[in-house]
Amino acid sequence: MSLNWDLSKIDNYKELCFTDYEDDKGMIEPITEAIIFMCMAIGMSGITKKNLGEFCIRAHMTQKLEGPWMQRSVDGGKMEKYALDVTNFKLHVGLKVNVTQEHKPWFNKKLRRMATDHLTRVARIKKEQEKAT
């Protein structure tokens, strides 16, 4: 199934979500695109005023385990990673995607699995480093 989204309910969506928006066409902004895919990762079908807090919590926890979802160029063209935050999400209230809305127990189970996988990888790497020394 394809991932579909509707940005039309976001305030000033043409200016916020697209670059060079003209004649109903434009390139989607990287932050908007990342938030769309974040919906899939955290099991939420969009951002509303009512679910903004839960969206922020799930997104923050996911980025803490997986790492930041964004990067930008800094001094000398070096790339720096940074996390999406509440400011980004507030601006995208009104976003809708065709993702199944998952309940908190589903997300908590997924989060535990992600944490276990992460800690297992860290332990394996540490063990391999100790063997190499």
Identify the overall geometry. Answer: globular
How many helices?
5
* Class based on secondary structure composition and strand pairing: alpha+beta
Strand content: 15-25%
Number of domains: 2
In total, the number of strands is: 6
- Uncertain residue segments: none
H-E order:
EHEEHHEEHEH
The major pleated sheet works out as: 2 strands, antiparallel
| Widest β-sheet, arrangement of strands | 1-6
Question: Radius of gyration from the CA trace?
Answer: 18 Å
Intertermini distance: 48 Å
Q: What fraction, in percent, of the residue positions are helical? A: 40-55%
The averaged pLDDT comes out at: 92
Could you explain how this protein is built, in words?
This protein has two domains: 98 residues, no CATH class; 31 residues. Helices cover 51% and strands 16% of the residues. It is built from five helices and six strands; from the N terminus they run E-H-E-E-H-H-E-E-H-E-H. It has a two-stranded antiparallel ribbon. Strands 2-3 form a two-stranded antiparallel ribbon. The termini are far apart.
